[in-house]
Design goal:
Length: 393
């Protein structure tokens, strides 16, 4: 058994505890959380850390299979050129691709991440996930803008899901769409019907560029040009006159859990509409990826005003400098100074655990095994540029 203390313990499910003490057994299970103000007989044998202790982080959005692209794509190109660069630099499975995946997972482990919501377009990451160093929910992500390809694409998704299960992975998985502009209505209906039938999780890249709304409202812009660039027939596709979010979410059953990712250009009106439409929407921010690709951030204050359920992701090493949830929080804190530390940590822990149905993670509570992170080099409980994380458990 270990007794771990710090300037503050952030249990997340309850208020921070000054000089609190966490009792944890050799398997990482929380035995108790003590407030020394109520009992002073717990200081013998305590490990003390200057800074704070919080639960292990959950990376809500990652593309582990793209790890081989680290440092290979230019920044600030905009989403359309970024996607073209991804396609131009794609590699088939190889020893270097598998090594990059293993290295990326190890980076997440070192950065105090205990669980990941990961996107898979192929089986290339399955072998690493089967080692169970981290807890995963894998989203089998599908693309097919042409409705005539919906059945074939959906069948491939089901086969990939079966293959995932064949790895005897204890982690969960579900089939999901890529983005509003990359799936037909036919395919979207098939995916959401399966999710509704199995009560499984959905995620979708949402309003990552201004061009998404332009496509759906007016059938104009760079996305339309990109679809044609890739030889995709858009003649029969009709604009809805609505935003990309409203056009897409209408096909998702109400109360179906869905994680909307990026939300870089989501306006207040869309947030309000979505929150009224579905009470089980979660919003994932990947700020460093937004800066890497589009050189901008979402208007996070609008989401806070609407009491949105927020989580944090890193996106991939194709679009980020690191796979660190703390780095994402530091970026948010540097632009939005008034967000309390406890709120930021909740986004990175408990909110994500609630979305992914990870009951043992997300908060420091008796009986859970959330992992413990030591976050140091803060200033009056504010994240600084030099703040760092050490995984204790």
């Amino acid at each position: 058994m270990r007794k771990i203390s710090a300037d503050y313990i952030f249990p997340i499910a309850s208020s921070p505890i000054k000089n609190g003490i966490v009792y944890v057994d050799d398997k990482g299970t929380i035995l108790d959380v003590i407030n020394p103000a109520n009992n002073s007989n717990h200081h013998i044998g305590v490990e003390y850390y200057k800074g704070i202790i919080c639960p292990g982080f959950i990376n809500s959005h990652c593309h582990l299979e793209l790890s081989y692209l680290k440092g290979k794509l230019p920044t600030a190109t905009g989403l359309d050129d970024f996607i073209k660069n991804i396609e131009a630099n794609k590699q088939p499975p190889s020893a270097s691709v598998y090594q990059a995946i293993a290295a990326a997972e190890n980076e997440m482990l070192k950065n105090g991440i205990v669980a990941v919501g990961d996107i898979s377009n192929s089986n290339v990451s399955f072998l690493q996930k089967a080692k169970e160093y981290l807890t995963y929910h894998t989203f089998i992500e599908l693309f097919a803008f042409d409705s005539l390809k919906a059945d074939k694409t959906f069948a491939k998704g089901l086969e990939l899901l079966r293959e995932y299960t064949a790895f005897n992975l204890k982690s969960s998985a579900s089939i999901t769409p890529h983005a509003p502009y990359s799936v037909s209505q036919t395919l979207l209906k098939q995916i959401t019907a399966l999710a509704n039938q199995n009560n499984s999780l959905l995620t979708i890249h949402n309003q990552e560029s201004k061009e998404e709304d332009k496509l759906f409202q007016f059938k104009q812009g760079k996305i339309l040009e990109r679809l044609r660039y890739f030889g995709i027939n858009t003649d029969l596709w009709q604009a809805t006159g609505l935003s990309a979010l409203q056009s897409t979410l209408a096909y998702v059953p109400q109360n179906q859990k869905i994680l909307l990712v990026h939300n870089t250009y989501t306006c207040l009106e869309d947030i309000q509409w979505a929150q009224q439409y579905n009470a089980n929407i979660y919003w994932c921010f990947c700020p460093n990826a937004n800066l890497y690709i589009e050189s901008t951030l979402p208007d996070i204050e609008n989401f806070i005003t609407e009491n949105a359920k927020i989580t944090i992701g890193t996106d991939s090493l194709a679009s980020n400098w690191s796979l660190s949830v703390l780095d994402e929080l530091k970026t948010i804190a540097s632009h939005y100074h008034k967000i309390p530390l406890n709120t930021l940590l909740r986004w990175a822990t408990k909110n994500a655990a609630d979305f992914f149905n990870f009951p043992h993670l997300g908060s420091i509570e008796k009986g859970k095994k959330p992992g413990l992170n030591w976050v140091r080099d803060l200033n009056n409980l504010q994240l600084t540029e030099n703040a760092s994380v050490v995984k204790l458990i």
